[in-house]
Design goal:
This protein has 4 helices and 7 strands. With 184 residues, the protein is α+β, with helices and mostly antiparallel strands. The chain has one domain: Peptide Deformylase. The strands form 2 sheets. A 5-stranded antiparallel β-sheet has the order 2-3-4-5-6, with helices on both faces.
Length: 184
């Protein structure tokens, strides 16, 4: 089922999320719906707060970017209760977008490598390192679990410049390309 994306301004995007256990109600259906929603809306990652749930779940499917980066072929994962253990490497800039901030793309600095621990959708524990675009996608989605959106990573000056765009997103004064949930 395609779920609506909660856009900038919705309080759930600012909440720190809570961990779940393997008995979380209809987890398999939720994960399936998150993947379906993300792919239908042309995303490469989706965090539970973006569909209105304040729980620690991320899905990523970066296969659509594999032409520009072959390491992204078959990079499709579900992360439950993820934790960043370490971020290392050089900071690098990449132009990011977000389903919760439609129409907005900005250059964001992030570390190039990330060490993460998480459970997959079968509650099997993983301890992985990701680098490059994989690290960036994970870090972007992980931020959602911490109540952070990518515009928070911009300089104060840049945030002032895009304030009008952010207000338009909050008010729904944007082209709607997929199901969206605006603040009331």
């Amino acid at each position: 089922m395609i779920l609506p994306i909660y856009v900038y301004g919705n309080p759930v995007l600012r909440q720190k999320t809570i961990e779940i256990d393997k008995n979380y109600k209809d987890l398999d259906i939720l994960v399936k719906n998150m993947f379906e929603t993300m792919l239908k809306d042309d995303g490469v990652g989706l965090a539970a707060p973006q569909i209105g749930l304040s729980v620690r779940i991320i899905v990523i499917d970066a296969n659509v970017m594999s032409e520009e980066d072959k390491t992204l072929t078959d990079f499709k994962k579900c992360f439950i209760n993820p934790k960043i253990i370490e971020e290392t490497g050089e900071e690098w800039v990449y132009n990011e977008g977000c389903l919760s901030l439609p129409t907005l793309r900005e250059d964001v600095k992030r570390k190039s490598k990330v060490h993460v621990q998480y459970y997959d959708e079968n509650f099997i524990f993983h301890d992985d390192w990701f680098d490059g675009i994989k690290a960036r996608i994970f870090q972007h989605e992980y931020d959602h679990l911490e109540g952070i959106v990518f515009s928070d990573k911009l300089s104060a000056f840049k945030r002032r410049l895009i304030k009008g765009k952010l207000n338009d997103i909050m008010k729904g004064n944007i082209e709607k390309k997929y199901k969206m949930k605006f603040i009331k």
